[in-house]
Write a structure and sequence with these properties.
The chain is α+β, with helices and mostly antiparallel strands. 30% of the residues lie in helices and 33% in strands. Strand 3 and strand 4 form a beta hairpin.
Length: 118
């Protein structure tokens, strides 16, 4: 399977369960791998035969702007659902991390992997 990847996408968003997290934006970092539905673009050279990663980035930014997630897990699941549903990807791996959320910790987060159900 061919994959596209997006590394170190940083977004300021409201995320978290604590009261201060619901009013103070935090920086999160996303790393994604997205399976492509076939190898058509490798042969055709056409953007129409692949998934446009700039559109994925735009949709993630919109999702995190429009919704407040209390847990990184829930945000990762929503992003995976969006990529599989809206973009027709057969598989996705999403890593999402808060940067500097705890003292002495550079980043903390979760990685999920999802595929379309048969």
């Amino acid at each position: 399977m061919d994959n596209i990847f997006i590394s170190e996408l940083k977004i300021e968003t409201l995320i978290g369960i604590y009261e201060w997290e619901q009013t103070v934006p935090q920086t999160i970092q996303l790393d994604l791998e997205v399976g492509l539905p076939g190898r058509h673009a490798a042969k055709s050279g056409s953007i129409d035969d692949t998934i446009d990663y700039s559109k994925i980035v735009g949709r993630i930014e919109q999702l995190l702007r429009d919704e407040h997630f209390q847990l990184l897990e829930k945000a990762a699941e929503a992003i995976a659902d969006m990529i599989l549903g809206e973009f027709g990807a057969p598989w996705a791996r999403i890593s999402i991390a808060k940067l500097g959320a705890l003292r002495n910790v550079k980043k903390l987060g979760i990685t999920i992997e999802r595929g379309k159900r048969a």
